[in-house]
Amino acid sequence: MLAVLEEVRVSWELSVISAHRNPEELDLHVNRRSAEGTPVFIGIAGMAAALPGQIAAILQGRKPVLGVALSSSPLNGLAALLAEVCMPPGRPVMVCGSDEAGLYNAAQAACSIVALYHHEVRLRFNDFLERATKKPAIGLLASDKKSGA
Q: Which bin fits 77, alpha (ψ -120 to 50), beta or left (φ > 0)?
């Protein structure tokens, strides 16, 4: 995910704040960043995945919130994904997927949102997309072991 943002040269900040354990800190952080002009937020969470929904609640639909569910619970990310999908009207979380593909999609979506308003980013993002279609940015890993069947 960060590689995509770096390649397109979209500035980013990584903060680790629990929606369950530190709700006041999250509220202050999101409001501060929003007031400073952060155009899009990405919430990455597993288990109950409250983070993207809480960010959306704080922002009250004023800015895009992208959600990525992580497979970190006994339900392998299903609860996290459903939590992001089941937001009430007016508090949208744009679900980008889960795990590695979701992280990549969130970064690409964030770049596309920023590119709407910044010509230089649009040019770099289009360049990135052109290169990304020629080679897969995410690939499946395969074992070097041969089957002994």
A: left
User: Of 37, 10, 15, whose CA–CA distance to 26 is shortest?
Assistant: 15
Q: What is the pTM of this model?
A: 0.85
Residues with Cβ < 8 Å from 42, sequence gap 6 or more? 1, 65, 66, 67, 68, 96, 106, 107, 110
User: Domains of the chain (ranges plus CATH)?
Assistant: 2-132 (3.40.50.1970)
Tokens of 121: 């980013």
Q: In a structure prediction context, what are the per-residue pLDDT tens digits for the chain, which is 149 residues long?
A: 889 999 999 999 999 999 999 999 999 999 999 999 999 999 999 888 899 999 999 999 999 999 999 998 788 888 888 888 988 899 999 999 999 999 999 999 999 999 999 999 999 999 999 988 765 555 545 445 444 44
